[in-house]
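Batch manifest, entry 17 of 40.
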Amino acid sequence: MNLTLGGVITNFVSTIMGPLLVAMVGWAVIVFFWSLFEYLQGDAAKKGNALSRISWGILVLFVMISLWGLVSILTNTFTGWGGGGNQVQVPYFQGQ
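Output type: structure tokens
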């Protein structure tokens, strides 16, 4: 077991935060589609409420996935924790 600060943070993120984020995005998708179903099937009162949840659902999904991607980009850029296969090789000129 790696008891350094980086190791503890990595273990915490991989065992707790990773699955929690996946569950939160999954729940947001389920609520979005449920609201969409209610909007298509409901009367005028239900449509207003469902349309509000659909709008918030799109915004929340966009923010969650964008932040997830931003954290991944920053992590891969500054630490290289993402593995060797997905890192961008920056072209440069070698001096003489």
